[in-house]
Amino acid sequence: MASEPISEANGVFRWVLDVHSEWPCSSNIRAGRDASTFWAQENDNQRALNLLTTEERERVLRFYHIRDVKLSLGSQLLKHCAVVHGCHVPWPESLISKHENNKPCYVPQNGSGKQLEFNVSHHGFLVALAGCADKDIQIGIDVVQVDTVKDLPRVRQEGWPSWVKTYEAVFSDREVQDIATWQPSHSLNGDDLLRAKLRHFYAHWCLKEAYVKMTGEALLAPWLQDMEFRNVQVPRTSSNMPTMNPTDDWGETISNVEVWRDGKEVMEIKLELQAFRNEYLIGTASSRLDVPFSSFKLLDLDRDVYSVAETEWPF
Predict the structure, then answer these.
(1) What is the pLDDT averaged over residues 269-286?
(2) Under a CB-based contact definition with an 8 Å cutoff, are residues 51 and 91 in contact?
(3) Distance of CA 35 to CAs 49, 52, 224, Å?
(4) N or C, which end of the chain has less CB nearby within 10 Å?
């Protein structure tokens, strides 16, 4: 999924950017008030920052931790790149707007031309974007880095059922029960079992975040516990799929999740959960069943972003 340059995509296009590999951080830069200033002075980083508006650049460089700077920068670049490719406008005109619900979007300044619906998420070192040049669609995307090293000590201390209950404000009673009692299809014990359970938990979390972001509301939405996912499966990594190349970044895709709200199945929502590398899950939600999802593409800055942003229009 990552070898070809960006091409025209019918339906919802989906991209990811690994900010760690694109902007390796100098070992002498530490988190702090001036860290982003030092980081911005490096040539490769200046090149990327110069593609943003002044306001966007200032917003990116406000962060204390360099990883957050890179995630914010990657997010901004993907938004502009999505507008250029989805709406066929030059980079300087790819100005980002917001819906009334504060979701980012692109609306042509002159009132004519394509509009773009898109959504962005970032976690760990990964930025993910889903977009579609159609004003009559809602899209949500969420990426989660499953960090079992961080979660395991607390899970061991509290016990799995108690740890799950701390998230009961986000999930329905049925989902809490499902997450608390779920068992993997193969026999595991000890921490290996807890790691599998955590991955199943984050599969639920990722799908719910993607759905909520599609609607433009937050995880405090009053209907949150009335909406639930059923038949949630955990997509396997490529290393756990005998038919896949174990060195491939992309693992299994799950698309048969059921959405229920107020006790009734919601049929018009399209959901997908994708495994990426060993630690990431990416959920996508769309309000249109008839609009297909493209395969995910891992972007390369030189090939996919700079080649567009630094090229004279039309290209």
Answers:
(1) 97
(2) yes
(3) 15, 19, 38
(4) C
Token duo for residue 18: 């690994």
Long-range contacts of 246-249 (CB under 8 A, 24+ apart): 249/1, 249/2, 249/276, 249/277, 249/298
Categorise residue 211: left if φ over 0, alpha if ψ from -120 to 50, beta otherwise: alpha
E strand map for the chain: 12-18, 97-98, 104-106, 116-123, 126-132, 139-145, 227-230, 250-254, 258-261, 264-265, 270-276, 280-286, 293-298
Which of 146, 151, 173, 178 minimizes the C-alpha distance to 163? Answer: 151
Burial label, 135 (beta-carbon count in 10 A; 0-12, 13-18, 19+): exposed
137: closest CA among 114, 113, 165, 118?
118
- pLDDT of residue 10 exceeding 80, the answer is no
Residue 142 CA from chain centroid, whole number: 4
Residue 4's identity, in one-letter code, is E
Q: What backbone torsions phi and psi does residue 141 show, to the nearest 5 degrees?
A: -140, 145
Cβ-contact 80, 116 below 8 angstroms:
no
Highest mean pLDDT among 90-104, 136-150, 238-252: 136-150
Torsion of the alpha carbons at 248, 145, 257 and 193, rounded to the nearest 10: 90
Q: How confident is the model at residue 3 (pLDDT cuts 50, 70, 90)?
A: very low
Q: Tell me, what amino acid is at 3?
A: S
Q: Is there a contact between 29 and 63 (Cβ–Cβ < 8 Å)?
A: no
**pLDDT higher than 60, residue 27:** no
- How far apart are the C-alpha atoms of 11 and 295, rounded to whole Å? 11
Spell 20-40 as b/e; 16+ CB within 10 A means b: eebbebeeebeeeeebbeebb
Query: What is the rounded distance in angstroms from the CA atom of residue 230 to the CA atom of residue 16?
Result: 27
